[in-house]
Amino acid sequence: MAPVLEVRGLQKRFGGVTAVADAALDLREGELLSIIGPNGAGKTTLFNLVSGLDRPDAGSVRLFGQDVTGAAPERLAGLGLARTFQHGRVFGNLSVLDNVLVGAHARLRAVRPSVPVLGPLLELALAAIRPGAVRAEEAALREDAMRIISLFGERLMPRLDHPAFSLSYANRRRVEIGRALALHPRLLLLDEPTAGMNETETAEMQGVVAELKRSGLTILLIEHKLEMVMRLSDRVIVMDNGRRIAEGLPQAVRHDPAVIEAYLGHREAGMARAPAQGTVA
Ligand SMILES: Nc1ncnc2c1ncn2[C@@H]1O[C@H](COP(=O)(O)OP(=O)(O)OP(=O)(O)O)[C@@H](O)[C@H]1O
């Protein structure tokens, strides 16, 4: 079986800065692979290249065996890739429930007929008439959204109708993850899901990610909190200055001299924040 994700020789430059140089990775079904590294190492840029937000200058990306190098995010979503963003992106004026339902949009069948040219008009008509098939699909999506929201315990449940702009930062992050899950992804990219969260919230999020992993979802994770990385990951890739400097089992990577040097070097130079929990050494 083809790996879920295969990245080869990926490069991206921004002016004089090489953000990603010759990145390579393989991700197998059901695996959780973490990417760690100091600030500016190129982790988010790598995510952007894989998820179609940026086009690589060189290299290739294959998803479920298909070449998707430079493909648009919509196409990747159709193939089952969902992602979240480092600073969380939600629709501020939509409710918690509607934000999650938006994520299910790509899965709609009855409501969005795939008819050429007339499709959008038919969609409007169906929205107005709401025949049985449309109502049934809406009900199923709502039930699924509620199931996803319940993954976060009581954090979001009492706030289903609250507009996202009124939520705490941590809750906005949860909503964004919920929206990504509503796509029923086969590959989930999580960019620092615990950024801005306190210890309790981080532990909860670790539980959610562990649950997703147990359910068989393949996950690519960027995370600065190394204790979480050590507990959740099957493998870890360490980046520094756009390059992969180490790859392996979490414990081996943790004690790799090049990794310790990268973290300590950056910290001594005052260039990186210290990981919020745990250290490499
Ligand atoms: N759109 C852009 N334009 C110019 N430079 C960029 C752009 N995006 C990223 N960079 C640069 O590319 C390098 C890698 O940045 P990137 O955000 O990928 O790192 P990172 O490992 O995700 O860092 P962090 O942990 O702080 O999120 C940095 O030097 C950054 O300044």
Commentary on this structure:
With 281 residues, the chain is of the alpha/beta class. The protein folds into 2 domains: 1-80 and 185-281, Rossmann fold (3-Layer(aba) Sandwich), CATH 3.40.50.300; 96-183, no CATH class. 38% of the residues lie in helices and 21% in strands. It is built from 10 helices and 10 strands. The chain has helices at residues 43-50, 73-79, 96-103, 119-129, 132-149, 169-182, 199-214, 226-232, 250-254, 257-268; strands at residues 5-14, 17-27, 32-36, 58-63, 66-67, 81-83, 187-191, 218-222, 235-240, 243-248. The strands form 2 sheets. A 6-stranded mixed beta sheet has the order 6-7-8-3-9-10, sandwiched between helices. The chain is globular, with a radius of gyration of 20 Å. Mean pLDDT is 88; it is low at 270-281. Bound molecules: adenosine-5'-triphosphate. Adenosine-5'-triphosphate (ATP) is lined by residues 14, 17, 19, 37, 39-45, 86. Adenosine-5'-triphosphate binds next to strand 2 and helix 1.
Give me the secondary-structure topology.
Blueprint (H helix, E strand, L loop, with lengths): L4 E10 L2 E11 L4 E5 L6 H8 L7 E6 L2 E2 L5 H7 L1 E3 L12 H8 L15 H11 L2 H18 L19 H14 L4 E5 L7 H16 L3 E5 L3 H7 L2 E6 L2 E6 L1 H5 L2 H12 L13
Parallel strand pairs: 3-8, 3-9, 6-7, 7-8
Antiparallel strand pairs: 1-2, 1-4, 4-5, 9-10
Bound molecules: adenosine-5'-triphosphate.
The site of adenosine-5'-triphosphate (ATP) has 12 residues, from strand 2 and helix 1.
